[in-house]
Design a protein that fits this description.
D-Maltodextrin-Binding Protein, domain 2, 3 domains, 286 residues, three-stranded antiparallel beta sheet, Arc Repressor Mutant, subunit A, 43% helix, alpha/beta, single chain
């Protein structure tokens, strides 16, 4: 097994294409195929398959990927062993859409200013899935929007409570003095694993014995656009709707929901990238 084979493997995963991998690495396509075949022979397992012209990662490839990331990070560090004053490598960060769009950019900008040679890979998913990726080693740092977290296997940095607001279209001038709007309009929100969706629905049931008619959408931008058009209402982190509140596209309606949503940054207690992780954490917490 050679480093070049693992570099080729990771590049195929990144690009989803043997052809693009050959172009990026300066190989012929047949050379790329030969390297994959050599790696598969070494592992006694097939790594890739095709379905409807799309490259599919098989189980062996999924298990190999995090190990390859670790090995190539170590290899990069070895290559730069003499550059003791420079931090380098790759940090894999998992975060929900709300934090990725509205809070992470500033954090990442400040970190890259201090550590320009560190590569950051950002993935979006639900908070529960982000935590799972961290535990399984597919992420080095996970951000979550969640109530208080109790964990013995991870280190939790509580980044503070997040203001939540219930919003409707700015053109909707109804008074909404009670919770009857829940029965009049759909609740426009994202996936069932969303912590603030769960908080809202749980409070509706426990305090008012009401269950909303839910309209699920795939992104916060889509949710905001639908609510602004007057179709329904939503319950979102205030930071995600501040621009729309300022320009009048949305307006806040008061609801008696006890907010417990905090932003969290989670790391593993022991990581092969401990120095990188600690540097990132230090920048966030400073």
């Amino acid at each position: 097994m050679e480093i070049r084979q693992l570099v080729t493997f990771r590049t195929i995963v990144d690009t989803g294409s043997y052809t693009k991998t050959a172009e990026l690495l300066g190989y012929t396509q047949s050379a790329v195929s030969a390297q994959v075949k050599e790696l598969e022979n070494e592992l006694s397992a097939k790594l890739f398959d095709y379905s409807h012209r799309k490259l599919i990662l098989l189980d062996a490839a999924k298990r190999l990927l995090p190990l390859t990331e670790q090995l190539l990070d170590d290899y990069q560090a070895i290559q730069k062993i003499a550059q003791t004053d420079k931090l380098s490598g790759t940090l894999n960060i998992a975060a929900p859409e709300s934090l990725t769009i509205f809070q992470l950019p500033k954090i990442i900008t400040n970190f890259k200013r201090s550590y320009p040679e560190v590569q950051l890979q950002i993935t979006n998913a639900s908070c529960k899935f982000n935590q799972k990726k961290l535990i399984e080693g597919e992420a080095d740092i996970a951000f979550m929007m969640w109530p208080k977290i109790t964990t013995t296997s991870l280190i939790d940095y509580d980044l503070g409570i997040q203001d939540m607001v219930c919003v409707v279209s700015g053109e909707n001038h109804d008074s909404f003095d009670n919770m009857n709007f829940v029965n009049q309009m759909p609740f426009v929100i994202n996936e069932p694993d969303c912590s603030y969706r769960n908080q809202f629905e749980r409070s509706l049931w426990s305090d008012f014995h009401m269950r909303p008619d839910v309209m699920e959408l795939w992104s916060i931008e889509a949710i905001k656009n639908i609510v602004a058009s007057g179709v329904g209402y939503s319950y979102l982190p205030k930071i995600t709707v501040e621009k729309e509140l300022q320009n009048g596209l949305l307006r806040v309606i008061e609801v008696p929901i006890e907010n417990e949503i905090h932003a969290h940054m989670l790391i593993r207690k022991n990581s092969r990238k401990q120095h990188l992780v600690e540097s990132f954490v230090s920048g966030v917490m400073s």
